[in-house]
Amino acid sequence: MSNTQIYHAIVGCGRVSSNHADAFARIPGVTLYYANDILRERTEELASRFGIQHVTTNYQDVLNDPKVTSISLAVPHYLHASMALQAIASGKHVLVEKPFVIKPEDGTEVMTSMQSKGVVVMPVSQHHFDPILCCIKQLILDNELGNIVMTRSHLECVRSKEYYTDSPWRGLWSGEGGSVLINQAYHIVDLLLWLVGSVKRVKAEMANLANAKIMETEDTFTASIVFECKALGNLTITGAGGGEWESYIEIIGTEGVIAFDIAYPNTIHRFELNNKTSMQAWKNKFEESRESGFVSPPGIDYYGNSHCHQARAFVEQIWSQLPQDGVDIKHALKVVNLIQHLYDSARSGNTVLVETSSGA
Ligand SMILES: NC(=O)c1ccc[n+]([C@@H]2O[C@H](COP(=O)([O-])OP(=O)(O)OC[C@H]3O[C@@H](n4cnc5c(N)ncnc54)[C@H](O)[C@@H]3O)[C@@H](O)[C@H]2O)c1
Questions:
Q1: What CATH number has the domain bearing residue 55?
Q2: What residue owns the CA closest to ligand 1's atom 6?
Q3: Are 293 and 175 within one domain?
């Protein structure tokens, strides 16, 4: 039996929307059907660039249209949970941009509602679909690095004044839920949990060093992390200075080390194993995964490629018609739960034990 045609809506036509439109436009069997934003000119601009059939400034039009199969939710953070719940209630499948929700408890409600409606709800964690990161994940699962003892993670970028003023929800605790940690460094926290495992306790500091006049949240954040596996890690992030984007992660084990930068998805920065035969075999695997992947655009366009992989996975999950186990949602809730504990530590100045939230 052939797959049914999917009619997809892009909801939120801001900065990241073209990555969704581009990714879904590449999938045979998917029609880009709606562009929705509260700002009409944004819907029209996206629709004309990608040949999207309908535009609306009213989300209800998308929800009420029986032809719409699925939605990309690319709206401000504070709207993710409520708009995902509305989509689910209308029987639409939904791909929710990161962070899945600001508060883990809202995400639990989304998961329960997804299970009762039998739709697909997928949080965006696009780097889980990068071929080279899948290879790194396998390297760690195969215990090639030995016991992980340390992680180093660093994000550095410059966010202009306009980045905040053009999107007024940014830079507010109520709108964005934080800033450089929950937004730009989300992927780093996500990948640390995905690759190294759960975190036991954290001690963090945050500051607003360059943008105090335009935002109330942090532009600089540091933390010490203790993983359940006993490894120690650090997190140094700033959206207030530096040069080119860096989203560097280094994982050091008793048998080797791997380092990569997610801004350059087809690249490994450092790779060594004590076992040189294994090391060569893995180098070959990395090379093969690079060749089978997409051609990387340079620098901050990185998420374009990754969204393509995840959009395909989302569509295939819809076509599979399998019940959703919620594993990826549970992971996303773990990420936001850890982010909340990092903020708690930075606010209180205390070391904080990371308690598992409901659903995470
Ligand atoms: N996965 C990634 O790598 C990645 C990259 C960039 C952004 N994002 C995420 O995507 C989301 C959007 O970010 P952005 O940078 O595009 O923000 P943005 O501010 O540029 O765009 C958000 C859009 O949502 C619209 N909007 C607000 N309320 C709405 C409503 N009720 N109905 C419909 N539209 C509404 C706004 O008018 C705006 O055009 C955020 O969650 C962000 O963290 C993810």
A1: 3.40.50.720
A2: 16
A3: yes
Task: For 67-85, write each residue's pLDDT tens digit.
Answer: 999 999 999 999 999 999 9
Taking the C-alpha atoms of residue 333 and residue 359, their distance in angstroms, rounded to an integer, is: 7
**Is 19 near ligand 1, meaning CB less than 6 Å away?**
no
Residues 56 and 159 in one domain: no
Q: In terms of domains, do 34 and 150 share one? A: no
pLDDT digits (tens, 9 = 90+) for 121-150: 999 999 999 889 999 999 999 999 999 999
pTM: 0.95
Query: Which stretches within 30-78 are classed as H helix?
Result: 40-50, 59-64
Query: Best mutation site among 17, 38, 58, 75 for ligand 1, i.e. most ligand atoms within 8 A of its Cβ?
Result: 75
Co-location of 190 and 213 in the same domain: yes
- 291 and 147 together in one domain: yes
Contact in structure between 53 and 24 (CB atoms under 8 Å): no
Tell whether the model's pLDDT for residue 211 goes beyond 90.
no
Alpha-carbon distance values, 80 to 85, 124, 169 (Å): 9, 12, 13
Ligand 1 centroid, distance to 74 Cα (angstroms)? 4
Per the domain annotation, does 227 fall within a domain?
Answer: yes
Do 151 and 111 share a structural domain? Answer: no
Residue 327 lies in a domain: no
120 and 258 in a single domain? The answer is no
Cβ(354)–Cβ(201) below 8 Å: yes
Question: CB 50: neighbour CB atoms within 10 A?
Answer: 17
My answer on whether 45 and 151 are in the same domain is: no
Which of 60, 97, 186, 187, when mutated, tests ligand 1's pocket best, judged by the most ligand atoms within 8 Å of its CB? 97
